[in-house]
Amino acid sequence: MKSKVSKTMWLVSALAVMALFLGACGVQLPEQEAADGQQSTAAAGGDLRGKRIALIMEFNTGTFSQQYVQGVEEEVKKFGGTLTKFVADNDKAKMASLVESAVNQHFDAILTDHGDALLEPGLKKAVERGIPVVVFDAAVNVPGATVLSQDDQKMAELTLEQMKKDLNGKGKIVKIWVAGFAPMERRQQSYAKFMEENPGIEEIASFGSAQNPALDTQAKMEAVLKQYPKGEITAVWAAWDEFAKGAARAIQQAGRDEIKVYGIDMSDEDLQMIQDPANPWAASAAVDPTDIGRVQVRYAYQKLHGDEPEANVVLEPVYVHRDSLPDQQISTAELSQYVEGWGQSAQGKKDWMAEYEVSK
Question: What is the full per-residue pLDDT of the chain (360 aa) written as tens digits?
């Protein structure tokens, strides 16, 4: 009996050693081949339905953010996934904590909206664990993550050049912006260059806050209007549509129709204001916020499919001026009929994604 047990133990040990040897030489056993086959099928895509997607936002303020979220929701639903949204209420440290939490909850993909370098440790952890990461509008450096951004410098240039044209190169302006946000910092770079090259345009006031931005801007703009009576302000340049809304309301209520507002970003609410001939907001440069959400999701699903998308994706803006719009009120969904390049972006689409569009 003892001899049989010894022989059996010897045979088991020999088989184990053989398996280790074959594995080291790159030879696969049948069980390993089956497991690797399943893994390679998953890497190549397979059925991507049922994925859990986390969207982590620094803030969810204003109609731009609402339409962006709408785009994310629509595209995740198209792929048959489920979306969970987390909002940090303008608290960057809280946002970083939410990213860590999403990693620990084993979401299949993580999307972020705004934020800064505080997100990097959590995003790196996600990448290391094989969780696809797609960042929007944040200056982060995380190898393996895809970062989406609008061409913020171009948007600033488009609005500043139109303002210069309307002012004939001379005038006194108010700038509304706030530091600490990657897109606004990039827009500020174009603004600084523009002001240096156009000495005939003078900045007489500058302010901005990300907390209740439209209401805060309206209150501060009202104070500036009292400080500078009619004829002393020519235009307002706003680095964010929430700022433009607040400034336009203050100017319109004060009856200061000599002042024009030039903004960045676009939502349905913004478009209504720009279309109103009595409103001082004359123009804006923007990317369709709903499209931004859709494109971000597509890149996440590319990664889930096993594709290797580019690390940096730039979304091209368009310029929307009141003169190009119809008399009747329209929404951003109809804007493509009047402004070339608006909406319905195919950016990030792959041929294999057609399967999910048909089965929607």
Answer: 444 444 444 444 444 444 443 344 433 333 333 333 333 333 445 789 999 999 999 999 888 899 999 999 999 999 999 999 999 999 999 999 999 999 999 999 999 999 999 999 999 999 999 999 999 999 899 999 999 999 999 999 999 999 999 999 999 999 999 999 999 999 999 999 999 999 999 999 999 999 999 999 999 999 999 999 999 999 999 999 999 999 999 999 999 999 999 999 999 999 999 999 999 999 999 999 999 999 999 999 999 999 999 999 999 899 999 999 999 999 999 999 999 889 888 999 999 999 998 655
| From the candidate CATH numbers 2.40.30.200, 3.40.1180.10, 1.20.1730.10, 3.40.50.2300, the one assigned to the domain spanning 52-150+289-317+343-358 | 3.40.50.2300
The residue extents of the domains of the chain are: 2-43, 52-150+289-317+343-358, 152-286
Q: Token match 């240096």: residue?
A: 196
Q: Following CA atoms 179, 343, 214, 193 in sequence, which dihedral angle do they give, to the nearest 10 degrees?
A: 40
CATH topology of domain 152-286: Rossmann fold (3.40.50)
* CA–CA separation, 249 and 260 (whole Å): 12
Residue length of the chain = 360
What residues contact 306, with CB distance under 8 A and at least 6 apart?
42, 43, 44, 45
